[in-house]
């Protein structure tokens, strides 16, 4: 049965598999010290226009979030996040497992507002004694957010400015970064992200790789002894080449961006078609995830023919569901989906 | 340059890559709930002759050890290990990171002795008050050990009996299990391991996979809510298929065992050739890792021509080095290595 | 300068000091195994009408909360609390330090509502997959709350019923429990608390002791090896007698209750006097903490003459401040405070 | 029944109780910000001849060790200790609970040797890659040790030099420090300790206080936000005065030293008397703990008349037992003990 359940229902982009085959017999050292990983890092540095970037390849997003947050925070500090942030909701407490609190501020369709962030931080760094409270030690945002929405360059700049006014690092979770960069009319590119954040990761798993996320420290600020810290978190792979090769391919000839553009363009086509048919959306998403409101009985009927994700109850009679596109989605299958709605 | 540095210098066995390609467009759900992973589990259950086995695929060995130990121990308990155990020496404190102490007993070429284990446990469960001490909560062994040595069935049975007399689970780290099972004259097979241990893992990364270890709970004793615990440790992969497919291939037509036999037979050939040439070994290893003692100047010369691992200083003039074989080692390259020595 | 800053500005009730002197030369074993601690436990069991109660004396409240929560939760579980709960706000992340998340629901003047608790729990234990979320593993309430408010017996019963319907333990933080039990018109007594909760602690530090909180497990549900767990948390005192003697005195001739009644009756006197003078209160507190709204300039003036706690900004011109009474507060000093307002 | 089981079987020195009574009604702020604590700190600074010392009062020794070690180490670092160190043996894994490994080196009657420490550290900071190992981040010693032995000034200096050559802080656990300072012929005084270590604690509980240990950072090296870190560990007492007053008394008119001298002089008397009677000792202890070897049947008989601690089995027929003296031990009771042996 056809499914639009998520952007990780298929394997990897064929060019990645092809390269795994070509390189299979090359003998290299382990733990990320291989030439493929080095090449990938160099290409990412260029794509970010950030020659000093310190880059590490990690298997998955939750692992990455736990690692970055735990190694950048002092033990008594917490991480500020919108209340809908992935770390605060759907990572099974991985951040708390490593001893840190998620400090939540309001979410606006997945995004935080610079002004609300500032107000929150003011309470700590202003008057009064907060010695008995968890101190904010970094700020976490997602781009695109869990709702497919994206920040504008101006919004990112404002958040970045607030963070730096309080000397807090800004961390951007880019599990689906490609789709954000490929959104119509966005003014945020990879260079902007490298400039405005202190650390971020480029999601591979959900943008055409089999596995892997590339963590980028942008300001010569990678925690000391980082390999040991990665190992301590159980996140160091013996065959580091597996992720290195994939990112090397993804950042060759703009494959990462081409994959994202393909998926976003199909998502926009879906949005337009459904709007034309009169469907309402939970919110306006410019990226590869679309949140459509269905009448419950229609949803039940649809389930028999196509896969999608339950998102949230809207009212007694309606439910928002998610359709996601990926590198593997075809025009043909998208048409099938549209015809079913 | 040719290298025998480790058994993870190449990619994956070609049959694995082939299957990744064949299945690439099949749409499946994430997080290990896919049909490939299910098929792999079923094959492993059969290979273990353990129909009730509860199996989970994890990316790497340190991750696996941290996860299994942390989720099976009560918070105040520690894990008993030989002093040379990987968890006690080369995992950067991943076990302590999750709050537990490694309780070390003597190592005999990497192995623990049942009698010494018993004596150690007796001190806790016998007379006297040990309320201020870390309680032993499980026993950890490696097979093969970090030194390539293996337990006999009798030794495993004795250790297992001691554990169970004290109601402690026995955990076997099988990062290189295949090579142990393929050792000449071993009487330990997978079924024996499943029978005598409470949990173990079958190493994939070092036995022909790109990545992945299969954790097997043998006694209906998998900790509750295991998926959530895996997620909390940052160890749940979105594209679970990646590991599932690999183990499905490894356990089809005995590929896992064929890979190991190939590597061990070449290692035995190396051992014989070097013994014939008069080389001494650090110890007798019946598996794919061979620890040869070289005169220091010879070692320096050899370095220019072939890769190997520094293991340990033997005396002022001699050093033990490790050569490892793998699925990808060829007769031709082995001959080259021998001719260099 | 006179102060009403908190209920821990003085030392201990004189009867406690007297007893410390009387018993000083008696030789007893350490770590809480002494006869004084045993006697205190027996008296508490009687006061709670809970013969099976398992009791442990701990030095302070945050220590106690961390210990109880960490040892009762599974590692992947969190604790549900009103958003204003002490553990979620003013314990510097002690709960997260031990690996657990505080799951917050709305606060109503410090209290949670059974219905909102039920709705929250329903989302986890109803339909759908919550494997990627932190599971609620216990419910935490404070009585009196951080705002001096108290639950009625009916409210406690409803919360308790919801907890038990989902098989979750209910934990009551009684840092100031005495003042709640001494509140006018309350229908909650110690026996009720022992009946409706699974574990609670009787606060000593803020109710006349020098130090110490008595943790009471009411349902034969104390975690195994509890002494070792206490030691592991750094919470086991060598001279356990120090806290044992104090609780023994506090639960002799109802001293604990007499102390609380004294403080509450003076607080009520303060409330009446200030209401008569036209002061507004932040909320209605029936216990020893009173939250009065002052005009800012008046607050500044008052500061010169008497100590109190800043509580929160009400608007640009007004601030809520806290006055607390204790065992040591005298009628005379209270009159002085009233005359200053 | 008379007991010499430990040095914490009685309450506090009478001068301490007297002062608690005198100060009982003085109103002071909480959490260690009171005038008594300030006065105590000032006296300790003088006694250490260390004007810049940063001092914090903590309830107990295990709490203190966990706090100091966890807050001074980076998350991937461990603490080096003699294998018999209290943290490695009898603190129920409190150090591991906070995520750190105890790295053990040989113990010589409780002491470590500078040369062996150096050899151990050399392996990390010399050649080779240790990225997969726990890094030594500080060195922990006890003075007196768990066996009552003490370091000479020269030994301390050598250990201190090794630590500082590798830029590692030296931490001295002084749970029984007073007895070490009062040992006959010792050349180690408090000033020496402050000079040679980076942080240490002065034990109160076992040297005449009801409770309390004073942590002293000697080199302006107290971790930032220390109050918050103390709170996060559950170690911040509301009535901080309780410990402050006690240390204020202990460091007035040399009470701390007078208490220790009294106990040590009685211990020496015991040692001489038993040697005269032909008893063997487990080792030579110059402090208040004496480890005497008894024939087993004699030990059983003695048990009926006097309390002592079982220490360790010496052989099938003999056992080492511990007798400890304290501020409260009288000549008369000591004579009774001697007469029983």
Share of residues in strands of chain A: 15-25%
Please state the overall shape of chain A, judged from the principal axes of the Cα atoms.
Answer: globular
Largest sheet of chain A: 7 strands, mixed
CATH topology of the largest domain in chain A: Aspartate Aminotransferase, domain 2
- Classified in CATH, the superfamily of the largest domain in chain A is Type I PLP-dependent aspartate aminotransferase-like (Major domain)
In percent, how helical is the residue content of chain A? Answer: 40-55%
Per DSSP, the total helix count of chain A is 14
| Helix/strand class of chain A | alpha/beta
- Oligomer state equals homotetramer
CATH class of the largest domain in chain A: Alpha Beta
The helix/strand series of chain A, from N terminus to C terminus, equals HHEHEHHEHEHEHHEEHHHEEHEEH
The separation of the N and C termini of chain A measures 16 Å
Count of the separate structural domains of chain A: 2
Question: Any low-confidence stretches of chain A, pLDDT <50, length ≥5?
Answer: none
| CATH arch. level architecture of the largest domain in chain A | 3-Layer(aba) Sandwich
Largest interface: C-D, 54 and 55 residues
- Tally of extended strands of chain A? 11
Mean pLDDT of chain A: 97
Keywords for this entry:
341 residues, Aspartate Aminotransferase, domain 2, alpha/beta, 11 strands, seven-stranded mixed β-sheet, Aspartate Aminotransferase, domain 1, homotetramer
Describe this structure in words.
Four copies of one chain form a homotetramer. Chain A is of the alpha/beta class. The first copy, chain A, folds into two domains: 14-254, Aspartate Aminotransferase, domain 2 (3-Layer(aba) Sandwich); 256-340, Aspartate Aminotransferase, domain 1 (Alpha-Beta Complex), CATH 3.90.1150.10. Chain A is built from 14 helices and eleven strands. Chain A has helices spanning 14-22, 35-48, 61-72, 86-89, 94-97, 114-125, 153-165, 177-181, 190-196, 226-232, 241-250, 255-276, 296-303, 331-340; strands spanning 54-58, 77-82, 102-105, 135-142, 170-174, 199-203, 213-217, 280-281, 289-295, 309-313, 318-324. A seven-stranded mixed sheet of chain A has the order 1-7-6-5-4-2-3, sandwiched between helices. Chain A has a four-stranded antiparallel sheet with strand order 8-9-11-10. In chain A, helix 1 packs across helix 11 (241-250) and helix 12 (255-276) packs parallel to helix 14 (331-340). The longest helix of chain A is centred in the C-terminal third of the chain and has 22 residues, at 255-276. The model of chain A has no long low-confidence stretch (mean pLDDT 97). At the C-D interface, strand 1, helix 1, helix 3 and helix 10 of C face helix 1, helix 3 and helix 10 of D.
């Amino acid at each position: 049965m056809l499914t639009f359940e998520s952007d990780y229902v298929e394997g990897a982009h064929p060019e990645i598999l092809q390269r795994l085959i070509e390189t299979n017999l090359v003998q290299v050292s382990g733990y990320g010290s291989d030439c493929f990983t080095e090449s990938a890092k160099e290409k990412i540095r260029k794509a970010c226009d950030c020659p000093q970037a310190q880059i590490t390849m990690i298997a998955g997003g939750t692992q990455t979030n736990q690692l970055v947050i735990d190694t950048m925070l002092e033990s008594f500090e917490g991480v500020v996040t919108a209340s809908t942030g992935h770390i605060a909701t759907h990572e099974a407490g991985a951040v708390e497992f490593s001893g840190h609190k998620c400090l939540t501020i309001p979410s606006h369709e997945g995004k935080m507002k610079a002004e609300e962030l500032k107000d929150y931080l003011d309470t700590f760094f202003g008057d009064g004694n907060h010695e008995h409270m968890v101190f904010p030690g970094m700020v976490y945002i997602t781009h695109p957010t869990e709702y497919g929405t994206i920040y504008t360059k101006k919004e990112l700049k404002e958040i970045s400015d607030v963070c730096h006014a309080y000397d807090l690092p800004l961390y951007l979770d880019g599990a689906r970064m490609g789709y954000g960069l490929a959104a119509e009319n966005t003014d945020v590119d990879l260079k902007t992200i490298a400039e405005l954040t202190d650390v971020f990761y480029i999601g591979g798993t959900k943008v055409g790789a089999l596995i892997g996320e590339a963590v980028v420290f942008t300001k010569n600020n990678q925690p000391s002894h980082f390999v040991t810290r990665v190992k301590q978190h159980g996140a160091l792979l013996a065959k580091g080449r597996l992720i290195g090769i994939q990112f090397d391919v993804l950042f060759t000839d703009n494959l990462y961006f081409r994959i994202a553009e393909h998926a976003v363009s199909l998502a926009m086509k879906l949005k337009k078609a459904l709007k034309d048919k009169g469907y309402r959306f939970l919110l306006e998403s410019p990226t590869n995830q679309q949140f459509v409101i269905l009448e419950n009985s229609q949803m039940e009927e649809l389930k028999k023919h196509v896969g999608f994700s339950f998102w949230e109850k809207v009212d007694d009679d309606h439910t928002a569901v998610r359709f996601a596109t990926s590198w593997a989605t075809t025009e043909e299958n998208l048409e099938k989906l549209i015809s079913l709605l």
